[in-house]
Design goal:
Helices cover 31% and strands 30% of the residues. It is an alpha+beta fold. The chain has a seven-stranded mixed beta sheet with strand order 1-2-3-4-5-7-6, with helices on both faces. It is globular, with a radius of gyration of 17 Å. Bound molecules: coenzyme A. GO terms for molecular function: acyltransferase activity, transferring groups other than amino-acyl groups.
Length: 194
């Protein structure tokens, strides 16, 4: 392979396209099930999965101009992803942010956890947040998910509120996390700089 060509076997981060729908929904269902399925009654988990991770839902998210979905692909397979909602839909009143962006889901293929894919997605999410002028990144994490909390703390997130997360008819205690984004300069927005 000549210089300048992309090695397709290397993990490659890109925006999701409609053609990714089935593979992305499949990865999400496998990753979410591996981490959380054992915690719930089958009917509650099935209701949640259909609402949050069906092919139809994923297709809608990829097509949504208010969202950005990134995937990491390796050798034709999707191995990690995250979803951003440019205007956060998370509970308000817990921070002073005026333009928070929501990091909706962040998952690595269970076989690839700990290999740096999450770090790449987090760097991408942060760059996107800066590009759209967000002043905070917000997300939610299950109160018992200590591993993910450790991951988020590493990137400067902190808990700002106790909230709830529903899985079918089951309500879990959930944490609202936020990371304020510090403007690069002295308060002037990029468009105001000369
Ligand atoms: C959280 C997650 C997306 C991070 O992606 P990743 O590709 O593993 O991230 P990296 O390799 O860049 O970072 C590894 C760090 O992630 C954290 N981590 C989260 N879950 C982990 C797990 N099950 N095993 C090991 N590390 C985990 C640790 O802090 C780890 O740091 P360490 O190596 O110092 O122990 C990934 O671990 C994952 O998919 N976890 C299960 C699903 C989940 O909990 N998602 C978040 C929902 S809010």
């Amino acid at each position: 392979m000549g210089r300048g060509m992309t090695a397709t076997s290397q993990p490659h981060l890109r925006l999701a396209t409609p053609a990714d729908t089935a593979a992305l929904a499949d990865l999400a269902r496998r990753a979410v099930s591996a981490k959380f399925q054992h915690l719930y009654k089958p009917e509650d988990f099935a209701t949640f999965m259909e609402a949050a991770h069906s092919d139809a839902k994923v297709a809608k998210e990829i097509a949504d101009p208010g969202m950005r979905v990134a995937v990491i692909e390796e050798a034709g397979a999707l191995i990690a992803f995250c979803k951003l909602v440019l205007k956060s839909t998370l509970p308000t009143g817990h921070s002073d942010a005026r333009a928070p962006l929501e990091l909706k889901q962040l998952y690595t293929d269970p076989a690839r956890i700990g290999g740096g894919l999450g770090a790449r997605l987090m760097a991408w999410a942060q760059a996107q947040a800066e590009e759209v002028g967000a002043d905070e990144i917000q997300l939610t994490v299950y109160s018992e998910n200590a591993e993910a909390q450790r991951f988020y703390h590493r990137y400067g997130f902190a808990k700002i509120a106790d909230i709830e997360f529903w899985v079918g008819n089951h309500c879990d205690p959930e944490f609202l996390y936020a990371k304020p984004l510090v403007p690069e300069t002295n308060g002037l927005s990029k468009s105001e700089q000369v």
